[in-house]
Specification:
Strands 1, 2, 3, 4, 5, 6 and 7 form a 7-stranded mixed beta sheet that branches. Helix 1 crosses helix 2. About 35% of the residues lie in helices and about 10% in strands. The chain is built from 14 helices and 7 strands. The chain is globular. The termini are far apart. The chain has about 425 residues and is of the alpha+beta class. The chain has 3 domains: about 80 residues, no CATH class; about 190 residues, no CATH class; about 100 residues, no CATH class. The longest helix is centred in the N-terminal third of the chain and has 25 residues.
């Protein structure tokens, strides 16, 4: 009758509720432990199920923003199970599924309210430790320049100030700048704002001074004063291992009634931040302006700036994120992938192998295009003809290639699993030598 505590049978009527409750809770605890025991007995079944669920949820969110909440619930559920069953402490499970555990742990960083950047330290710690790298140069914060750069009509005045600054700088320290209209992304504070003024401020590696890519969002001709507040900065600095570390920060301008303009970090203003790794796989992003948006005098500067980007060594996020934990990206070469690009024409003189995106986009070159990734950015580059570099594609071919790339990455078909699922299940490891 009372199998959990047989010695108490004769005294049950005289006992308080405490021991009785203890006896009743013991089988409940045993039941609660059963799912973890079953999981560890057949980890392959559980992992395949969770991988399919996570990859499907990621694909749904990639396709439509409304699926974000469902994706977050799936990820949170997996993290809860991993923690509850102590899978990271289970040596056998950890050795069998290191990719899965590392991936889930890395994705989970951005789910923490104080880790919006997606890094392994809090946003507060990140900005404190990288302050010396991501501060906007003082000469771009003068009242006169901030006023000029905050209206489309006064943009020529802002450029005149930059030319004046260049007159006093050495050739190697010349500011590189041009204005353009983005093809794909609005500013973080205004998704309908596409105009930018980009200013590349050269650094000094020997003095540990980073190169800074400072980008001011510019209201278009029809916009009201103050409609665009964003100023973004990506700072780059080589490290001793031959990588280029990238550091990020968004600033917002505040327009006062008296006409003054102040500028402060978006995070410091309490207006949140974004996951840097979602867009900046290569650290700095290449610039592909909307056709006709760069004036004739500044057009050569676009190629100069992009050549500077291509000269950077492999991108890293310093100690703040191990991007290899996010796995391979779009177009990663596989044994069954040879036909993916074979039907499309390419120009071998333009520096591409004509086969895969991963010829350039891998962890030791420009960063893998792995999840999480931005749909607008990826689709614009492929469908817009900027990527893959060197291919001569019609619009229909671009659309078909884009669909193939996305399907090949997110597929959960058991017979022909996609890149992400295969990697998470450990099927893309190099064979032991």
């Amino acid at each position: 009758m009372n199998r959990c505590c047989p010695r108490l049978r004769s005294t049950i009527p005289r006992l308080t509720i405490g021991p009785i409750a203890l006896c009743l809770l013991l089988p409940i605890a045993a039941v609660a432990a059963t799912p973890c025991a079953e999981l560890k007995a057949r980890p392959d079944v559980w992992v395949r199920s969770r991988v399919d669920g996570l990859v499907s949820a990621a694909y749904a969110w990639y396709q439509r923003d409304s699926a974000e909440r469902a994706y977050e619930r799936v990820l949170d559920g997996i993290v809860k199970e991993v923690d509850k069953c102590r899978l990271t402490q289970d040596e056998m499970f950890r050795d069998q599924y290191p990719e899965f555990l590392g991936y889930v742990a890395t994705l989970a960083l951005a789910r923490r309210p104080d880790h919006e950047l997606g890094f392994n330290v809090s946003d507060q710690v990140y900005f404190a430790e990288t302050k010396q790298y991501v501060e906007i140069p003082d000469f771009l914060l003068t009242p006169a320049f901030l006023r000029a750069v905050s209206r489309f009509e006064t943009l020529p005045q802002a450029k005149a100030m930059l030319r004046e600054l260049n007159a006093a700088r050495t050739p190697g320290q010349q500011l590189l700048f041009f204005s353009y209209q983005s093809r794909h992304l609005g500013t973080p504070d205004n998704p309908d704002s596409f105009w930018r003024l980009l200013i590349v401020v050269p650094g000094n590696t020997e003095q540990r001074i980073p190169e800074k890519w400072v980008q001011f969002g510019i209201p278009d001709r029809r916009a009201a004063r103050g409609s665009v507040r964003n100023v973004s900065i990506v700072a780059t600095l080589p490290d001793a291992e031959g990588s280029t570390n990238a550091y990020f920060k968004d600033y917002f301008r505040t327009y006062r009634r008296n006409g003054s303009i102040t500028i402060k970090g978006r995070w410091e203003l309490g207006e949140g931040d974004d996951n840097c790794a979602q867009c900046h796989k290569s650290g700095v992003l290449p610039i592909f302006p909307e056709t006709g948006s760069v004036n004739r005098e500044e057009q050569p500067m676009v190629e100069i700036v992009n050549a500077r980007f291509r000269a950077y060594s492999r991108p890293r996020y310093d100690k703040y994120l191990d991007a290899s934990k996010l796995g391979p990206g779009l177009g990663s070469s596989r044994s069954n992938e040879a036909s993916l690009f074979s039907e499309f024409r390419f120009d071998a003189n333009l520096g591409t192998d004509g086969k895969t995106c991963a010829a350039c986009h891998h962890t030791d070159r420009m960063g893998a295009l792995s999840w999480p990734m931005d749909r607008v950015l990826i689709s614009s580059y492929v469908k817009g003809g900027q990527m893959p570099r060197g291919f001569k594609l019609t619009l229909a071919e671009r659309n078909r290639l884009y669909r193939k790339l996305i399907q090949d990455y997110f597929s959960i078909d058991n017979q022909n699993p996609g890149i992400l699922k295969s990697w998470l299940l450990g099927k893309r490891r190099e064979p032991p030598s």
